[in-house]
Write a sequence for this structure.
């Protein structure tokens, strides 16, 4: 167990919901907790802050068990979804609130407030009232206020959800920059997978009060450990295992042909849309020279222009297959292909390590 | 397992309201216990006979029926007057609309004894309305003889209560989604059909809720019936309780009667609560007001709007204004006509030798002010500490909140009766009597102060307190630094409210007080009883002044909260 950073094992039960989550965050890391609404990610944050009672487990911060400390002695700062700027105080009073409680001198307080405001790029905002600030400015002030007391851990509860899309992108870069400048261990809760993938060092995917997967963004996207994570972190197509014999193609040129092995249990295969090849000319074969699955006579149901690609939903024998194409198909019927090594297989929703289809001779 | 009890400061928040709860329970249940014990306990011991006897007595049954009848009629008339106004306010924008809405808050703050006085001065045989009509139509007889009759009761109740229905219904109406009406019209219904089939059904929960509140007020009405009813043939339950206890000396009968009153009030309150919940469920409340705010289109519409505005001004403000005007008038000699004079104020301040009950006026003014100050100072900490605990609970209606509303289940006459029975049991001096008056006022004021502070408290997001905690402030520091500054306005409003409530409190004070106790409303009542209306008007004007301050403060506080 690392004695640096946050290691937690949280247990709590509520009327219709139990939370049982274990994960750890390295010192100086920015970790994102992501999950659908109601998965317990905000509850997790409140448990770490001490705003909700913990029923068991442990909460270690930099080697110290803080699970039994009251909220105000934990030295964990939190930025709330609605920012919770105190409306009866101006920006300076808000930021120096924690400093005043720690009985810092007046001059020192002034100096720290100025430093924090320049960190969040709001120089000269000391005397503004919180009602006069825009959403983005409030968010920065809330961040500065949280950082003022030099906490050991910073918690951010969906800090960008109240802002519009463009501002969101800009501010998440800002949060990343401020994190890198201060080096503070940060836990960031969001429900936006794009936000998590772009900002986090580590992603913790939660579902129904449990941690489903924990790791780097690339790992989670490319090797989702369960069907839930696969479909939550991006799009994809889920098909029953039984379609493989009909669609498996071993091109003559490939040195190692792949064979289908029937398996027990409820098996499903999953692949991402960007890994699907689209051929709209019936007379041409798929430009694929590796073992792959080929879906002939798939009907294009919808074609959305996404800027850099087209997003197609195709119907094949009653199944819907999502794919990305660089051009708009000219015919209604297309052939789709996906390489065998792009396919992941799940048993009862859980990943199994080996590939479903193995080269002959293995 | 080490259960982290103090971690979320649970114990702290559980301890905070404890003293207040004890105080409230004592203040409420001790007098109630005295009332019930004198209903059931006689010299022979515990008996249900007396209660049974009283309840089956034909005279009691007559009173019960009359009480229900007058409340029903008053509610119906209030609805009749209020609903057109609610319609006007909800659909049109016109001159004076804001003023009407502001004035409709008056009945919430005006003491009932003042309504009685205003009514007598305005509608009386020598009142303003009659003098006006007599001079306009050149009559020798006053055309409106409504005082001291059944009509007077209904009229006074209507005047007192229609603004409540108007403001409650219109504010609900304003926030209804207007697209439903538009949709109905695109589907082929005409205006009348749309109103009957779409608007009215959606409005009904609000109407029922407001009407049941008014019914409750009329059921428990005391001063209006006592004075304007003008005799035993128009006696309601509350008046009969007072009469039995204080005039006939049958406190046992009074206590038995109050059982009926309590039972009905509790049932009405439960019904009102249910209707409120239905209201909350019935439609997703639109945060923005409906878009169509138009001026009345037709000339007839304009005329009607103008007429309604003018007459509601006349009926809300007329009695109050006439009290003020009358207080500055006196006749120099017996035969001379009345002219401007400060006579009553001079008598009030003992600058001139006062006659009759005016002699006790200055004492009453100081007594009332002192009592009201005490009440205001004591209710705020009680209500505030309960609010702190209520706000922390996750569930919407905690038992604490219900407890805080408990005194509302019992009419103020019955609270007065309870304290009267206490004073009869323990013989103390005058000081004790005044202490009991203060205690009775406290019980009555606490629910109102709680209801003033609690909504404002609920507006403070929990995240404010949470972020203060995460920033290192403990619960006490958080309260002092965050909650208290944000609640300043609400606390002040609550205190002023309690002050005014105590200043104007009549029902409980009259029921419990012996003749040596003088407060402003009591002296006013005695002055009215001895036909010194101008003197009563002078005292009434002071009460009006207090109410105006409350009114302005509460209106100011509405817009004064932090924009969030």
């Amino acid at each position: 167990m690392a004695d640096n950073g946050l290691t937690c094992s949280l247990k709590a039960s509520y009327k219709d919901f139990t939370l049982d989550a274990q994960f750890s965050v390295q010192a100086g890391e920015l970790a994102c907790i992501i999950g659908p609404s109601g998965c317990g990610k905000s509850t997790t944050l409140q448990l770490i802050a001490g705003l909700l009672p913990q029923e068991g487990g442990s909460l270690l911060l930099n080697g110290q068990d803080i699970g039994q400390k009251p909220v105000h002695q934990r030295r964990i700062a939190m930025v709330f979804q609605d920012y919770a700027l105190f409306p009866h105080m101006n920006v300076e009073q808000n930021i120096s609130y924690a400093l005043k409680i720690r009985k810092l001198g007046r001059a020192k307080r002034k100096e720290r407030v100025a430093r924090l405001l320049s960190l969040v790029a709001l120089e000269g905002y000391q005397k503004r009232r919180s009602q006069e600030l825009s959403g983005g400015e409030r968010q920065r002030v809330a961040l500065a206020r949280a950082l003022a007391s030099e906490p050991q851990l910073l918690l951010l509860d969906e800090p960008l959800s109240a802002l519009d899309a463009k501002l969101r992108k800009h501010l998440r870069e800002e949060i990343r920059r401020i994190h890198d400048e201060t080096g503070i261990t940060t836990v960031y809760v969001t429900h936006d997978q794009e936000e998590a993938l772009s900002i986090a060092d580590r992603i913790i995917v939660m579902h129904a009060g449990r941690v489903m997967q924990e790791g780097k963004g690339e790992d989670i996207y490319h090797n989702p450990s369960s069907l839930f994570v696969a479909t939550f972190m991006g799009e994809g197509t889920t098909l029953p295992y039984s379609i493989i014999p009909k669609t498996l193609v071993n091109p003559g040129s490939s040195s190692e042909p792949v064979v289908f092995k029937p398996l027990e249990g409820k098996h499903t295969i999953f692949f991402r849309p960007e890994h699907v090849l689209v051929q709209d000319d019936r007379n041409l074969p798929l430009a694929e020279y590796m073992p792959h699955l080929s879906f002939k006579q798939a009907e294009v149901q919808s074609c959305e222009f996404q800027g850099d690609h087209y997003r197609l939903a195709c119907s094949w024998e009653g199944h819907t297959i999502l794919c990305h194409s660089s051009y708009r198909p000219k015919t209604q019927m297309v052939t789709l292909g996906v390489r065998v090594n792009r396919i992941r297989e799940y048993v009862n929703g859980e990943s199994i390590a080996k590939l479903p289809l193995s080269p002959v001779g293995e | 397992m080490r259960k982290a009890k103090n971690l979320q400061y649970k114990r702290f928040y559980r301890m905070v309201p404890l003293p207040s709860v004890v105080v409230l329970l004592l203040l409420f249940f001790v007098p109630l216990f005295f009332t019930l014990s004198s209903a059931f306990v006689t010299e022979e011991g515990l008996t249900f006979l007396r209660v049974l006897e009283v309840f089956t007595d034909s005279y009691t049954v007559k009173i019960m029926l009359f009480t229900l009848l007058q409340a029903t009629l008053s509610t119906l008339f209030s609805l009749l007057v209020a609903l057109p106004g609610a319609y006007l306010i909800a659909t049109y924008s016109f001159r004076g609309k804001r003023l009407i809405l502001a004035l409709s808050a008056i009945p919430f703050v005006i003491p009932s004894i003042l309504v009685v006085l205003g009514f007598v001065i305005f509608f009386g045989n020598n009142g303003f309305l009659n003098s006006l009509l007599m001079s306009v139509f050149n009559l020798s007889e006053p055309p409106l003889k409504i005082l001291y009759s059944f009509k007077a009761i209904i009229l006074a109740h209507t005047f007192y209560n229609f603004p409540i229905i108007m403001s409650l219904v219109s504010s609900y109406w304003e926030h209804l989604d207007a697209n439903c009406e538009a949709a109905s019209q695109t589907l082929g219904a005409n205006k009348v059909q749309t109103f009957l089939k779409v608007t009215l059904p959606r409005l009904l929960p609000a109407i029922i809720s407001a009407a049941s509140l008014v019914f409750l007020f009329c059921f428990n009405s005391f001063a209006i019936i006592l004075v304007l009813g003008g005799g035993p043939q128009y006696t309601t339950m509350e008046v009969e309780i007072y009469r039995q206890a204080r005039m006939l000396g049958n406190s046992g009968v009074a206590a038995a009667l109050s059982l009926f009153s309590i039972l009905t009030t509790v049932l009405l309150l439960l019904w009102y609560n249910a209707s409120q919940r239905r209201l909350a469920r019935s439609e997703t409340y639109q945060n923005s007001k409906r878009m169509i705010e138009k001026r009345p289109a037709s000339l007839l519409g304009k005329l009607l709007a103008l007429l309604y505005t003018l007459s509601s001004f006349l009926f809300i403000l007329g009695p109050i204004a006439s009290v003020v005007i009358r207080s500055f008038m006196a006749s120099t000699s017996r035969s001379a006509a009345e002219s401007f004079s400060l006579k009553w104020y001079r008598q009030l301040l003992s600058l001139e030798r006062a006659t009759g009950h005016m002699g006790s006026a200055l004492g009453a003014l100081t007594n009332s002010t002192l009592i009201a100050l005490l009440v205001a100072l004591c209710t705020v900490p009680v209500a505030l500490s309960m609010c702190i605990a209520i706000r922390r609970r996750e569930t919407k209606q905690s038992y604490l909140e219900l407890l805080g509303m408990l005194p509302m289940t019992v009419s103020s006459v019955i609270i007065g009766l309870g304290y009267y029975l206490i004073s009869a049991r323990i013989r103390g001096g005058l000081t004790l009597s005044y202490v009991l008056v203060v205690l009775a006022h406290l019980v009555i004021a606490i629910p109102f102060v709680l209801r003033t502070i609690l909504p404002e408290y609920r507006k403070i997001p929990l995240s404010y307190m949470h972020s203060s905690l995460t920033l290192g402030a403990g619960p006490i520091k958080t309260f002092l630094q965050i909650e208290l500054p944000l609640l300043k306005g609400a606390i002040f409003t609550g205190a002023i409210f309690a002050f005014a409530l105590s200043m104007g409190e009549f029902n409980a004070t009259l029921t419990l007080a012996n003749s040596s106790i003088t407060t402003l409303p009591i002296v006013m009542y005695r002055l009215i009883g001895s036909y010194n209306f101008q003197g009563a008007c002078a005292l009434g004007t002071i009460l009006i002044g207090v109410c105006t301050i409350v009114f302005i403060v509460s209106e100011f506080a509405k817009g004064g909260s932090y924009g969030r």
